[in-house]
Design brief:
Blueprint (H helix, E strand, L loop, with lengths): L6 H19 L1 H14 L2 H21 L9 H19 L9 H7 L4 H11 L4 H21 L6 H33 L1 H39 L6 H15 L3 H10 L10 H14 L2
Helix pairs in contact: 1-7, 3-4, 4-9, 5-9, 6-8, 7-8, 9-11, 10-12
Length: 286
């Protein structure tokens, strides 16, 4: 186990297991937790999740044909997919996202902070130390977050921020020391692959995140249109086909049509009027 997972990952698993056991022991927490699990397992959430895992599995299958491939890399890929890739895709479904969101998914993995995070995550301490560090840092972060909620906690916020800075630099310094003493035993190729996994998969997951955003935007757009259309399904279908043709896979066009043109629709709107609306929108996008 220690050859595949770092001591920090093992310590995290131990604490998560303890928390899960505690949650299921408490009747009230167990009931709420079961309710959350049921909602998460609904087809609308579970099917996209399975699709994202299948997408990652497909690229893993292709990577196995590379000469440097090792099955131990599955761990790094799985962690990134579950804790970075999947959240990024689900976040793209949100009602409003920044227009640079998809670019930032990639650029976020090229910052200097990523190198620091990689060093801290790769070169860890003994299991006993990690078991003590994790809850201590977690409580410190919680205190720091809580201190932001009210102005009267400003002094506490300054203290927790100072402590977090000290802890952060201490952990980084000890991780660098560990890196210098043990980098030769880990293998340069393995370290390079582990570092490149977030960069490579962030690029691979941009189309999935973008597809989620497009689907969610069309769903909202068509819902708003339905309030300003007759109940005739044939008319609704023709309207949607027309919108799909002019907007295509352009996120900006979908947003523009929803915000500026849906308001001009009304239930008794004639087909020729809707066609003129589409032509007006089409001319404004060129």
């Amino acid at each position: 186990m220690f050859t595949i997972f770092s001591t920090r990952e093992i310590a995290t698993s131990i604490w998560i297991t303890i928390i899960i056991i505690f949650c299921f022991i408490s009747p009230n927490i167990r009931k709420a937790l079961v309710s959350v699990i049921k909602h998460v397992c609904t087809p609308k959430l579970s099917i996209p999740f399975v699709g994202m895992l299948f997408y990652a599995a497909l690229f893993v299958f292709l990577l196995t044909f590379l000469p440097f491939w090792k099955w131990v890399y599955i761990k790094d890929i799985s962690i990134w997919v579950l804790f970075a890739g999947v959240p990024a895709c689900y976040k793209a479904i949100e009602r409003k996202i920044d227009e640079h969101y998809f670019r930032d998914i990639f650029l976020g993995n090229l910052k200097f902070a990523v190198l620091v995070e990689f060093i801290i995550a790769t070169f860890t301490f003994s299991l006993y130390i990690e078991l003590l560090i994790l809850p201590a840092i977690t409580f410190l972060v919680l205190f720091d977050t809580f201190a932001e909620t009210k102005p009267e906690y400003t002094l506490v916020k300054k203290l927790t921020s100072f402590l977090m800075t000290i802890v952060g630099f201490t952990v980084l310094a000890l991780s660098l020391k560990e890196a210098i003493s043990s980098y030769q035993t880990l293998g340069a190729i393995d370290l390079l692959v582990s570092f490149c996994v977030p960069i490579v998969f962030s690029v691979l997951y941009i189309p999935i995140a973008y597809g989620f955003a497009i689907y969610a935007k069309y769903e909202v757009l068509f819902l708003r249109m339905s309030f300003k259309e007759p109940k005739d399904t044939i008319i609704k279908r023709s309207h949607r086909i027309a919108v799909l043709r002019v907007c295509g896979l352009s996120y900006k066009k979908i947003v523009k049509f929803e915000q500026a043109y849906v308001k001009d629709m009304y239930v008794s709107m004639k087909q020729i009027e809707f066609d003129n609306l589409i032509r007006k929108f089409k001319s404004s996008t060129y």
